[in-house]
Amino acid sequence: MTSQSSDHLRPLPADANLPRHVAVIMDGNNRWARARGMSGVRGHHAGVEAVRAVIRRAAERRIETLTLFAFSSENWKRPVAEVNALMELFLMALKREVKKLHQHDIRLSVIGDTSGFSNAIQKHIREAEALTRDNRGLHLAIAANYGGQWDIARAARHLAEQAAAGELDPASIDEQSFGQQLGLADAAPVDLCIRTSGERRISNFLLWQLAYAELYFTQVLWPDFDGEAFDDALEDFCQRKRRFGMTDEQIDEAQGA
Q: At which positions is Mg(2+) bound (predicted)?
């Protein structure tokens, strides 16, 4: 990851209300590779540069949290050779990129069932999170071996265990207390969810956290998604009116107050 002056960023609308939390479903690596006569693994390697570019731009735009969907709990169903290559790539990224993130004051966290990974990957995840824990810049969350249904079921189990132990009154459980048991409990709700490659679904990603997110779908394949493409999504977000159940008149009145 390299530094780039925010002075060279594309101007956004003067009254731009940027999202605090952006989540990205990084899709299209295999299609990008096939279009070039390459193996799917080459596509995943090409996607790493897009990850760097988006992290860089999110930091430059002072986004609070960037969550990247790197590996879903369903991705284990892919061909063994591809899964093995993805695990090698994940481990390589943990070894090579974390110090750069730390130098740029970026905090890294990994959400998902990390027990499903090798001991080496688990070790490097712990070390990366420990190294960057006190950083105050961008919070980079990597969703790995993650599924939204798994996240919700785990939260329900934790609350049920507390209730069974007499530590929690079931009647006290509400949206806020439930949300505190989920991955990303310390992050703002997702404001903007981006999915690349033209697919229009959320694929079991952050089901609870996306409750009021704006969805942005682009035909761009992930390896071709760069800082400018990220800015396109931000610009689109800034043009939307978020109602949260209210009428346009109520929103206009609140904004004018």
A: 27, 214
- pLDDT > 90: percent of the chain: 86
The average pLDDT across 10-33 equals: 90
Q: Binding site annotation covers 150?
A: no
The answer to whether 32 is annotated as binding is: yes
Torsion angle of the four alpha carbons 253, 239, 4, 90, in this order, in degrees rounded to the nearest 10: 110
- Which member of 15, 17, 75, 135 is catalytic? 75
Catalytic residue among 7, 15, 27, 186: 27
Q: In the predicted model, is pLDDT for residue 127 greater than 60? A: yes
User: For 134-187, what is each residue's pLDDT tens digit?
Assistant: 999 999 999 999 999 999 999 999 999 999 999 999 999 999 999 999 999 999
Q: Is 75 a catalytic residue?
A: yes
Structure tokens at 246: 């209210």
Task: Please state the φ and ψ torsions of residue 156, each to the nearest 5 degrees.
Answer: -60, -40
3-state secondary structure of 42: helix
Please state the pTM of the whole predicted model: 0.91
84 is in an annotated binding site: no
Residue-range domains of the chain with CATH: 22-240 (3.40.1180.10)
* Residue 34 is assigned to a ligand binding site: no
